[in-house]
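I'm curious: can you give me some protein's one-letter sequence along with its C-alpha cells because I've never seen that pairing?
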Amino acid sequence: MKKIAAALAVSAAAALCAANASASGDIIRYCDTSAFINNYPIPCYEINDYCGIYVKDLASYGFSVTFDAAASTVNITRDPNCTSITGIDGVTLPYQMPGAQYAVSGSTNIRVLLDGQETQSYWVDGYMMILLDNMTQYGEKYWDNDSKSLFLTIPDLPQREYAPLEKAKRTYTRVKTPSSMLDFSYYSQFPTEQHDWGFVRVEHDEPSLYDWEKSMVAKFDAYYMDHSKPRAIYLTFDEGYEAGYTPQILDILEKHGIPATFFVTGEYVRSSPELVRRMIDSGFSVGNHTLNHANLAQSSTETIIYEIEALSDKLKYDFGYDEMYYMRPPEGSFNEKTLAIAKDMGYNTILWSFAYYDYDESDQPSTEEAYDMMTRYMHDGAIYLLHAVSSANTNALEGFIQYAIENGYEFRSLDDLCNP
C-alpha cells in the first residue's frame, strides 16, 4: 500500500481536516496488509490504498462505539474505563487475491465522529468503515514495509507480543468424493447421448439456449452463467498447452486485482509447472480440464472418473493444491452421465455464456476484433471462456477489463458463484 507509507508524513490533523462525510462508490478490496492495535490484529481492507477497518470492531480494542439516531452519527471515543484489549479471535490474511474487490461503498447520511471530529467513513453492506490511518490522535502510527503491516500503539493500553498473520484457506461446504466410494454401476442408468455446448449469442444480453440445455445444467449443479448477481462477470481460461501468453495474462489480472479460473490439463501441468505454481500462489483458482483432454461424452464411466480424479491428485501431490472443485469438459462435449459423475465427485461443471473462435494460433482475429467481441456480447452474470493460447485475447484483455469496470461490472470468482 503505497499511500499508507506516504501517509506517515502527513499529520493526523491534516488528515482529519480533509475528511468528509460517508463516501459512496469507493471500491473496498482484499489486501495482503496486516493491521494491529497494540499488536492485536484487526481485520482490514484496502480503500484507495489506505487501511480500512470496521467501526464495530473497535469495541474490542479499547474504544466505545455508540450510535446517535437523532444526529445520525456513530461516535467513537476512547473508553476511559477500559484498561485491556480483547481483540478479535482468528484474524487472518484473506485467501482472496490481493486487490480483488470485496465491496463497493454505498450512500448514507450517517457520519462517523472520532472524539467529536468527523472522519472519512464508508457505508459497506449496513456497516460503517473508517481508515485506521486517521486515528493517530489516539497513539503512534507506524508502517513496517517488510511485513506490510500498519501498527497503531495506544500508550495507556497493554500490548501483546507481535505475531505475523497467517493466510486463510478457502473453506467449502462440500468435499470431493474419492473413486473408491463411488458405485460405478449406478451411472449406467444415465443417457450417454453426446451434447456439444453451444448457443446463439445476443448482443449485450445473455445467449439464447434451448430449454433442455437449461434444465440439464440446473439438474446437475452445473453453471453457464450467473442469474443471481447483476453486473457480475467471471473470467475463465482454458489451458491445454502453453503458447507464451499466460505470464502476460497473469500480469494483467494481478495488476487490476481480477479473479479468474484457469482450467488446466495434465499436459499443461507437466510442461508448465512454474505457471501453475504462480496461479496457485497468486490466489487464482485452478480448474479441472481432465488429465488427457478427453472427450468425456465418448468415455466409459471408469475413464471419466480416472480423467478427473487423476488430474486432481496430480495437483494435490505436486503442488499441495486440494481446492480443485470446478470441472470443464474438454471441447464442451458432455452428457447426463458426465454431469452426474462430476457432481457426485464434488465438482461443479462450468460451461460458459461467452466464447468465440479464439483457439487457433494460426488464425487469430485482430486485437480490435477480439475486443469488439468481448464487449459487444458482455452481459450480466457472464462466464467468459477465453483460450490462453490466443494473442488477440491477451492483447485485448486489459482494455476489456477497463471497459467492463467503467460500465459498472464487477469481476468475481467462481467461489462466489458456487459457494456463496
